[in-house]
Design goal:
Blueprint (H helix, E strand, L loop, with lengths): L6 E2 L6 H9 L3 H34 L4 H34 L6 H8 L4 H4 L4 H20 L1 H12 L15 H14 L4 H14 L4 H14 L11 H4 L12 H7 L10 H12 L13 H12 L7 H18 L9 H5 L2 H10 L10 H14 L11 H17 L5 H53 L6 H22 L4 H16 L6 H24 L4 H20 L9 H12 L21 H7 L6 E4 L8 E9 L4 E5 L5 E6 H10 L2 E3 L5 H16 L12
Antiparallel strand pairs: 1-3, 2-3, 2-6, 3-4, 4-5
Helix pairs in contact: 1-3, 2-3, 2-9, 2-10, 3-8, 6-8, 6-9, 7-10, 8-9, 13-17, 15-17, 15-28, 18-20, 19-20, 20-21, 20-22, 21-22, 22-23, 23-24, 26-27
């Protein structure tokens, strides 16, 4: 089977996929990539010139002939491989940028893996020296430029679908050095020369990181992306307020909502009162969010207390209510989980009052936990709770109970709950991944078998359509010999010598049962029959065909061959003229159009926006699928595209196949609204972006209007 019949994964495997992923990134990322390519191209030119001189000097100063020859060989190797090294280096930089569109767990694990003692013990000495050199250079550079790179990472995380850290900034020392080391390791040169090249790279390229960092900052600022290098210099680094900024900064929140600030005199009493409210069985799934002021007023009246709530605290309540109003109105959130997510409102309000970084820092444990909870809930659909998804549902409910019961003023409760929840979810995802792998393997096998059946049928039709065959010969060809061709094609491939040999047997068999035109044909048939029977027997034996049926087939075939040698017609056989006319009539029958010809009907051309959207879909994209009138929406995830059948395979959150669509079916479903793509990016961050953008546009000067009225 050729590679075209394999499952085509919708994740980055080659340069075509890298380019496709890059195309989905914002324009500012392309600007950064162009900037980095130009900067590194200039730096590499100086580096290779210096490397040539350095290796020549080392060869000139070598103490032995062997050492001198090694350096000369290294110099020649570097010269020969220079263009290839540069090309692969920039391909790796492109790949680093493409991962900003999303990264699978294997790549992430590989990129984030630390250089442990166990790992070091498994590599050869030469590899160990190179790894140590890499770790030393990267560690020093990342420590030296950590503040700037972290600021850039935070800025990029605000406009990207994935959260990144300073290690994953595509132009960070970690990425640049890793790409360089990968290419240096591939060179067929002495280890001493490799270390010299890497140290030279450190001195001539990595040392220019501050210059590159400055260019990145300027590029981001020119594109309206504010980079907060530190709280002290944030206003200086981002002087202009970018109206199109993707995420709010600390200044946005402080100036427009005034929701974070120093503790007021009565904040301690307010937090104590909120801790009491946190444990009450409130109806917290309202689409408008929890009206904190009304709830607090009611509780104070019942308890006979009078806590003075300051303006800053009221505005914080308003901001949190607006955030949850956005979250609870999210269409992708399954109905049974709105109440669960709603129960997080009071703990989130307390965290916003206790820690101003909660609304600013994307990595804040409470914020990450809320995003994780919403992400899991978004993968669910109403029917799932009825078909055995209780373990994860119960763990999610237990996590929220834990927050409500244990969170007083210690934020570590969120940190511990986040660690436990993500660990449990990862185990569930690994189980689902196993089922998904089996699903895709089954679909792959089905596609290969279907393609093989079509190929066999086409070859048989090609070799028999012009002939009138005896019934026994037709039964042999369309039955056991069809299976022989099928098994041979799958086992050896449809271009192999074994496949071609079985096709020749088919051709000879068809010819052998035709009437002989003359003496030469009869002599040829007499010579052919023994070899043909032997080849037929070997083929049938290869599929373990029933030996008794083989004997019956060969007995009948022998009778046909004898009749052909004698020039006799078989029983019920038509005269040759009628046979030819029937064959010609059959050949003139219209052939059904292939699936490729039907892929794009006239009413939906290839450049239709929905066809273009389908072509750009990535593995893991989530959808709501409407299967029929009155039925619940089916929430599913795109698992793979099977090229031979042209089908997109969709699975549920457990990795079980729930739907399959061709490209045209999928495009039409999206066009008619029967299939709707879901946004599974971090919902809390999107809510914060929406709220602050609304505040900025409305230029709110009064406390927040919780009813959404002016």
């Amino acid at each position: 089977m050729t590679d075209s019949a394999k499952v085509i994964r919708l994740e980055p495997e080659n340069q075509r996929q890298v380019r496709a992923r890059l195309a989905r990134l914002p324009a500012v990322i392309h600007s950064l990539n162009d900037l980095g390519q130009k900067f590194l191209a200039s730096a590499l030119e100086a580096y290779f010139d210096a490397a040539d001189d350095a290796l020549f000097d080392l060869a000139d100063k070598a103490q032995t002939n062997n050492e001198q020859n090694a350096f000369f060989d290294s110099m020649r190797e570097v010269r020969v491989q220079r263009k290839s090294v540069e090309r692969r280096f920039f391909d790796m930089i492109d790949d680093a940028f493409s991962r900003l569109a999303g990264e699978d767990s294997r790549n992430a694990a590989k990129a984030d893996g630390e250089l442990s003692a166990e790992a070091l013990s498994l590599v050869q000495n030469e590899d160990l020296e190179q790894l140590v050199a890499l770790e030393s250079t990267v560690g020093r550079a990342m420590r030296e430029y950590s503040a700037v790179l972290q600021g850039i990472a935070d800025a990029l995380s605000r406009i990207l679908p994935v959260e990144i850290n300073e290690q994953k900034v595509p132009l960070s020392p970690a990425v640049i050095c890793g790409s360089a080391m990968a290419q240096i390791k591939r060179l067929d040169i002495d280890i001493k020369a490799k270390l010299v090249l890497f140290k030279l790279f450190d001195r001539l390229v990595v040392s220019r990181q501050p210059e590159l960092n400055q260019q990145m900052l300027e590029c981001l600022e020119a594109n309206g992306i504010r980079v907060m290098l530190s709280r002290r210099v944030a206003s200086e680094a981002c002087a202009a307020d970018a109206p199109g900024a993707a995420m709010p900064t600390a200044e946005d929140i402080a100036s427009m909502a005034s929701a974070v600030g120093p503790a007021t005199q009565n904040r301690a009493e307010l937090l104590k009162l909120l801790s009491f409210v946190q444990r009450l069985p409130l109806n917290s799934d309202s689409a408008n969010g929890l009206d904190f002021e009304r709830v607090l007023a009611s509780v104070q009246n019942r308890r006979g207390e009078d806590v003075d709530i300051g303006r800053l605290e009221k505005e914080t309540m308003g901001l949190v209510q607006m955030l949850f109003r956005y979250i609870l109105r999210e269409q992708g959130l399954a109905e049974p989980f709105r109440e669960l997510i709603g129960r997080m409102q009071v703990p989130v309000l307390k965290m916003a009052l206790l820690d101003e970084q909660f609304l600013v820092e994307k990595r804040h444990p409470a914020r990450r936990l809320l995003n994780e909870l919403v992400a899991v809930a978004s993968e669910w659909q109403t029917g799932d709770v009825l078909v055995g998804d209780e373990p994860l549902l119960n763990f999610m409910r237990g996590t929220i109970d834990r927050i409500q019961n244990q969170f007083d003023s210690n934020p570590d409760v969120f940190k511990d709950a986040l660690a436990d929840f993500t660990s449990f979810v990862d185990k569930e995802k690994r189980r689902a991944a196993v089922l998904e792998r089996r699903t895709i393997d089954a679909e792959d096998g089905k596609a290969r078998a279907e393609q093989a059946r079509k190929t066999v049928a086409a070859e048989i039709q090609l070799r028999t359509m012009a002939y009138h065959l005896p019934e026994l010969a037709l039964a042999l060809i369309n039955g056991p010999w069809s299976n022989v061709l099928f098994v041979t094609g799958l086992k050896y491939g449809f271009t192999s010598a074994e496949w071609n040999e079985q096709l020749r047997v088919l051709t000879d068999l068809v010819w052998s049962v035709q009437p002989c035109a003359g003496r030469s044909d009869r002599q040829k048939l007499i010579r052919l029959i023994p070899d043909l029977i032997a080849r037929l027997r070997r083929g049938l034996d290869s599929i373990s065909y029933n030996p008794f049926e083989v004997a019956e087939l060969f007995t009948g075939l022998e009778e046909i061959h004898l009749a052909r040698i004698r020039g006799e017609l078989l029983a019920h056989e038509q005269p040759p003229e009628e046979s030819v006319a029937e064959a010609e009539s059959g050949a003139a029958k219209p052939v059904a159009p292939t699936s490729e010809q039907m892929t794009v009907p006239p009413e939906l051309p290839a450049d239709d926006p929905h066809m273009v959207m389908v072509n750009g879909l990535a593995q893991g994209a989530w959808f709501d699928l409407e299967e029929g009138e009155g039925k619940d929406l089916l929430r599913c995830r795109l698992a793979a595209f099977i090229r031979p059948t042209g089908k997109y395979i969709f699975v549920n959150r457990n990795g079980i196949k729930v739907a399959e669509k061709t490209r045209i079916e999928l495009a039409l479903a999206m066009k008619t609204g029967h299939m709707r793509a879901l946004d599974h990016s971090m919902l809390f961050d999107r809510a914060l972006e929406s709220v602050v953008t609304s505040l900025r546009q409305a230029k709110v000067k009064a406390p927040l209007d919780l009813d959404g009225k002016k």
